[in-house]
TrEMBL record:
Protein's recorded name: Sodium/proline symporter
Keyword terms of this UniProt record: Amino-acid transport, Cell inner membrane, Cell membrane, Ion transport, Membrane, Sodium, Sodium transport, Symport, Transmembrane, Transmembrane helix, Transport
Sequence similarity: Belongs to the sodium:solute symporter (SSF) (TC 2.A.21) family.
Biological source species: Pelagerythrobacter marensis
Function: Catalyzes the sodium-dependent uptake of extracellular L-proline.
Record flagged with keyword Cell membrane: yes
Lineage start: Bacteria, Pseudomonadati, Pseudomonadota, Alphaproteobacteria, Sphingomonadales
Length: 490
């Protein structure tokens, strides 16, 4: 068993590193090549890269775990995400692709905002870069937690005594492979590996639920209704605030730098629609598969009298129980793919902000392209080390960390990106206000525990007050600030 699983994983690791070397030879001579792949992404690569970097280990750990524990009612999170992603592709993608080129060929979101609102350029670049680095460090930590859990559940017996805890060894192994291809190959390596990883993920998420239901020990769905009362009722026990907190996950899409940067890198404006269709089709199949893993997996565990200590490991447990070692290795590689695709994207976006919006802006304005690429590689390593430290707590929950970071980005950047692309009266002061208020409200909400319990009642997901407060701040401050005679947004 160990030999077959290790063989599949070895093939996967070699493939990722090979892509990194290919990208190193193709697109790391300039900062535009290293940070955006020269804006030459094929629509299929852009689509699956956006999807894979978005879904992360949350798709195979967090969402199936929530459905396993609570039932179909947790599917509202997936529905909200699907609707948010669709609006993001329709409203944000084409405008951002066009306007980032128009406004000074911006390579990062902070640089675009600075070019769009030149009167507040420095403030926008600094504040947005700080938010990106802080929240992405937490987000990256969530992915590393997934890698640690994967190793503890499946890989520890394959590697023997490593001299450290299995959890920490899993974190370091995950981080090490991601760092190798991200630091070497930059954005093109991240995007190409995301494409391959997205293909692996969708195959795994189609295969797993079918085998769980119709393979040995399955029941073809007959035992699903016997798990617990209301398990298959999408509205069972759902309150208005609970529904709102679940469905509004979709608001986060408009402000996720690691997702929307893919829109900037698509090779042409006309390719955006093609990428949208591919990406939304991929996302639909993956979400259905993840829901199936959680729901059918719970029925399988109950029917066969098995035990699952951590609901977020249901995918791993089923992979180990049901499949031949070679297939198990493939399925675990799919989980690693989900984890690594997001970590690499987040590390690169954080790196781009540190290099373009701090180093080049304040320390070395005349830095050469080669110097910027090398500094970017160093920044990738620094953010990864901080994320490893945060992820070192083995009691961390993937869904909890992701939800906090997702809300932070969604509230700080979501209204800002939408309005900067569509509202000609928006001002630089309004943009700064939106960033600060959105991130501040989310931070306060989390610190006060109001996402768990608000005014003695049910908690409210922090993205809701953060998004609304940011939108109102942009709107109010922009109207109160004398508008510049600037070229309107397209």
């Amino acid at each position: 068993m160990q030999t077959g699983t290790l063989a599949s994983l070895a093939i996967y690791f070699v493939l990722m590193l090979g892509i990194g070397l290919y990208a190193w030879r193709k697109s790391t001579d300039t900062s535009e090549g290293y940070l955006l792949g020269g804006r030459q992404l094929h629509p299929a690569v852009a689509a699956l890269s956006a999807g894979a970097s978005d879904m992360s280990g949350w798709l195979l750990l967090g969402l199936p775990g929530a459905l396993y524990a609570a039932g179909l009612v947790e599917a509202w999170i997936g529905i909200g995400l699907f609707l948010g992603a669709l609006v993001n592709w329709v409203v944000v993608a084409p405008r951002l692709r066009e306007q980032t080129v128009h406004y000074g060929n911006a390579l990062t979101i902070p640089e675009f905002l600075a070019n769009r609102f030149p009167d507040k350029a420095t403030a926008l670049r600094v504040v947005s870069a700080i938010i990106i680095v802080v929240f992405f460090t937490v987000y990256t930590a969530a992915g590393l937690v997934g890698g640690g859990k994967l190793f503890v559940t499946s890989f520890a017996n394959l590697f023997g005594d490593t001299g450290m805890s299995d959890y920490m060894f899993g974190i370091l192994l995950t981080a090490g492979v991601v760092l190798a291809y991200t630091m070497v190959g930059g954005f093109l390596a991240v995007s190409l590996t995301d494409f391959v990883q997205g293909c692996i993920m969708v195959v795994a998420l189609v295969l797993m639920p079918l085998v769980v239901m119709f393979g040995p020990g399955g029941s073809g769905g007959e035992s699903l209704t016997q798990v617990q009362t209301g398990f298959l009722d999408i509205g069972y026990g759902l309150t208005f605030l609970g529904f709102l907190s679940a469905i509004t996950w979709g608001l986060g899409y408009f402000g996720q730098p690691h997702i929307i940067v893919r829109f900037m890198a698509v090779r042409s404006l006309k390719d955006v629609a093609v990428a949208r269709n591919i990406g939304m089709g991929w996302m639909f199949v993956c979400l259905i598969g993840a829901i199936g893993v959680g729901i059918a997996g719970r029925a399988y565990i109950v029917r066969n009298g098995l035990a699952v200590d951590d609901p977020e490991t249901i995918f791993i447990v089923l992979a180990n129980v049901l499949f031949h070692p070679l297939i198990t290795g493939f399925l675990l590689a799919a989980l690693l793919a989900a984890i690594m695709s997001t970590i690499s994207s987040q590390l690169l976006v954080s790196s781009s902000s540190l290099t373009e919006d701090f180093y080049r802006l304040f320390l070395r304005k005349e830095a050469s392209e080669r110097e910027i690429v090398n500094v970017g590689r160093g920044a990738v390593l620094l953010v990864a080390l901080a994320a490893i430290y945060i992820a070192s707590d083995p009691d961390s929950k993937v869904l909890g960390l992701v939800s906090n970071a997702w809300a932070g980005f969604g509230a700080a950047f979501g209204p800002l990106i939408i309005l900067s692309l569509t509202w000609k009266r928006m001002t630089g002061a309004g943009a700064v206000a939106g960033l600060v208020v959105g991130a501040g409200v989310v931070g306060l909400w989390i610190a006060m525990g109001w996402n768990g319990s608000f005014m003695g009642g049910e908690g409210i997901y922090e993205i809701i007050p953060g998004f609304l407060a940011s939108w109102l701040a942009i709107w109010g401050v922009s109207l109160a600030t004398a508008p510049r005679a600037a070229e309107p947004a397209v």
